[in-house]
Amino acid sequence: MAVIRKRIITKIGIYILWLPLILTAQPPQTVWVTVDTFKVFDENTSLAEARNRTIAFARQEAIRRAVPEEIHNVSLITDKQAQTGKAAEEQTAYSIFAMATQSGMIIEEKIESCQPTFRDNMLYYRVRLCARIQPVQGERNPALALELGVNSMTLKNGEKLMITVQANHDGYLYLFDFLSDNSVQLMFPNSYSKNNLIAANKRFTLPTPAETAQGIYYKVTARPDMQVTAETIYAVFCLSPIAGIDKFSSIQKGYATFTAGDESFTQFQRWLAAVPLSQRVEKAIPIHIVK
């Protein structure tokens, strides 16, 4: 009887020890969320701006519903008051991407309807959004650090933009411009500077020396329908190269881009979701372009 008991205990012990390994091997489950919401704007707000801001709000709400334990990274949230003559326009540079990379990724979405309505000199903009969200799992690597800077967070229309980046490890750098409608445009690497491997503790600048030698520089452009255009420079640093970067819409010499399309939002989310948290670090800086 003593021998039989020992065998049973041993089998149970092995089963219990292996159970956590089986559970942690499961891929993160995705959640479908539908949000039907609206925002109210004054009569001076353009339909394009109202649409962009309402969709961004709906995306935030979808993530909140799917991932109640959202984590806010205060280094990625900035509100700025921009003054233009007698007018003051509140520009919130909080990016939905910041929230998503900390709590849940929207890897698929469908904007089912957008309905603007004018009533009592106010614009009511309603959006119905269906989104599939993948909760962020894993832990950050505290040994990874990234610094991101720009020559100015408030620039006049047509001014040059200069970006500086420094990481404390050798790795691969990706720079994006989150446009005013929350679409994503790739800044670096690009057709002029394809090598995105950077050295540890060495300051990297954009435009790169190779671009400068070709007379290439980066000039900000304000949207024609907005007094202040809010965009976000977003840096992703990873210890290994990330596949699929060639699929992004990239900056083109001589052309100003105001949108990269709604699909670029989920494209970016899926691209980043494939990289473990322990392998990457991100930083964001809001910029405001004033006419």
Q: Based on the coordinates given, report the CATH architecture of the largest domain.
A: Sandwich
The helix/strand class is alpha+beta
Q: How confident overall, as mean pLDDT?
A: 80
- According to CATH, what is the topology of the largest domain? Immunoglobulin-like
Number of strands: 16
In helices, the fraction of residues equals 10-25%
- SSE pattern: HEHEEHEEEEEEEEEEHEEHE
* Structural domains: how many: 2
Strand content: 35-45%
Kindly describe this structure.
There is one protein chain. The protein folds into two domains: 31-135, no CATH class; 146-290, Immunoglobulin-like. Strands 7, 10, 11, 12, 15 and 16 form a six-stranded mixed β-sheet that branches. The protein is built from five helices and 16 strands. The model is unreliable at 1-26 and 70-94 (pLDDT under 50). Helices cover 23% and strands 38% of the residues.
What's a concise summary of this model?
The chain is of the alpha+beta class and 291 residues long. It has five helices and 16 strands.
